[in-house]
Amino acid sequence: MKMQIKQRVVSSHPILYRIARWLRWRLYFLKSLFIDKLPEVLHIWLYKQKISSKSKYSFWSKYKDKHKGKRCFIVATGPSLTFEDLELIKDEFSFGVNSIVKILDKTRWCPSYYGIQDPHVYEKLKSKIHNSNFKEIFVSHVIQKKEKLDLNRFKPYFLKSYKFIPAYDESPYITSFSNDVSKKVFSGYSITYSMLQVAVYMGFKEIYLLGADCSYSQDKSKQHFVESGYHDKYAYLAGKKMIDSYKYAKEYADNNNVKIYNATRGGMLEVFERVKLEKLFNNLDKNTDSLNS
């Protein structure tokens, strides 16, 4: 019914429809900037200028270089991920995200850290997250602002959109890569991109992506390894925007002596050198850089 009404409006009043859509996203932008973002930006600026003696995010300094020189795995929830993959990395430092919390009773693997930033996804997984055994949960300030979470367990970061682009916009996604997550974490259209910034801040020098397919089937039941229950109607554009973002991560990593590899089985992400996950556990030294043998 909604689709039929929309089609009638578009066909009958195309100019009015375009004006309304233009206004809708500009108003959304103003809300995002002045209501959701400005207070946090101002708070951080006051702290940097030493006008305020306390920052909400200063606790992140204890994570700086915590795992210096180590390797880790960031586990996304693309459909190519397998339980066998998770078993292979059960003794490694790892980050889990989003709906991965739903399958922890089916594997011996448990992530060292867990991250989530989309409030819509959080609402669907809320009970699972709170009932999990995660000791440290990284969340966007958007979730923390709405939920008033226990800061002993939930660690918020300020999620910054570098440039506002509506979800339906097909233009290249513009972002950046943070060198200090105590100040900001740049949005890269995925929680995986945010965890990359956290991992680099923590000192990891070898980072492997798993389940980072960056491709979305038209079949909603096959978009993820395990579904969260929330379906973004603009998911068909998400893969391209993620890939645009990962190019910024690659540039930052190359300039800062960090190696990022893609150990995903399949998918569309070709920004990073691909490696076969099994080869990493074929009696190779865990700290070696010789991944092409």
Molecular structure report:
There is one protein chain. With about 290 residues, the chain is α/β, with parallel strands linked by helices. The protein contains seven helices and ten strands. The protein has helices at about 1-10, 15-50, 85-90, 120-130, 140-145, 190-200, 235-255, and strands at about 70-75, 95, 115, 135-140, 155, 160, 185, 205-210, 260, 275. Strands 5-4-3-2-1-8-9-10 form an eight-stranded parallel β-sheet. Strands 6-7 form a two-stranded parallel ribbon. β3, α4 (about 120-130) and β4 (about 135-140) form a beta-alpha-beta unit. α1 (about 1-10) crosses α2 (about 15-50) and α6 (about 190-200) packs parallel to α7. It is globular and about 65 Å long. Mean pLDDT is about 80; it is low at about 1-5 and about 285-293.
Strand order of the largest sheet: 5-4-3-2-1-8-9-10
Query: What characterizes the major β-sheet?
Result: 8 strands, parallel
The CA-CA distance between the termini, in Å, is 58 Å
Number of helices: 7
| Integer-rounded radius of gyration | 20 Å
Report the average pLDDT across residues.
81
Assembly type of the shown chains?
single chain
Q: Hey, roughly how much beta strand do the residues contain? A: 5-15%
N to C succession of SSEs = HHEHEEHEHEEEHEHEE
Shape estimate:
globular
By DSSP, the count of extended strands is 10
Residue stretches low in confidence (pLDDT < 50, at least 5 long) are: 1-7, 284-293
Share of helix, binned: 25-40%
Derived structural class: alpha/beta
